[in-house]
Amino acid sequence: MTTSADAHTGSDATIAGDGTVTDRLFAANERYAAEFADPGMDARPVLRVAVVACMDARLDLHKALGLQLGDCHTIRNAGGVVTDDVIRSLTISQRALGTRSVVLIHHTGCGMEAITEEFRHDLELEVGQRPAWAVEAFRDVDQDVRQSMQRVRTSPFLLHTDDVRGFVFDVRTGRLREIDPA
Fold first, then answer.
1. Choosing a second label site near 92 at 20 to 30 A (CA), which of 38, 43, 86, 157?
2. Between helices 84-97 and 141-153, what is the axis angle to 10°?
3. Are 146 and 140 in contact (CB under 8 A)?
4. Is the pLDDT of residue 1 over 80?
5. Above pLDDT 70, what percent of the chain?
């Protein structure tokens, strides 16, 4: 299998080709738009599911879960942790756009296992202002999935908390391992 990671052997200029990476992405969009046909769908996901996952570039969620365009809402952040902003997005997803199920996906080898809350302190020293947000670093991926499931299940803003399941994606095998919420 060939990925864009295979091209990451040269300088940043080589990766981007002519211009910046953003220029390359914009050019790709021009090619995409030239053949684009309106799929005629709205923002309501067909499967009525929201997936919360890590932003790690190794996770191709649609392929890993067998999803098509329009099947789900996808919410991604560093670690795939359930933060206040994730609750905000899930609340809108459920209350305004009809989702009923929540799937949480963390993964093996996550960068959030390698940093600590000291990251905020280091930022404060560097820029002179302490971030208002928590890093949400963790040492035990299974326990963090459990914590995320609990945050979803106990949120007063969410209408549908009976179908909340958590998984760890193995970046080496592509397999999901379900986490018992106990």
1. 38
2. 50
3. no
4. no
5. 90
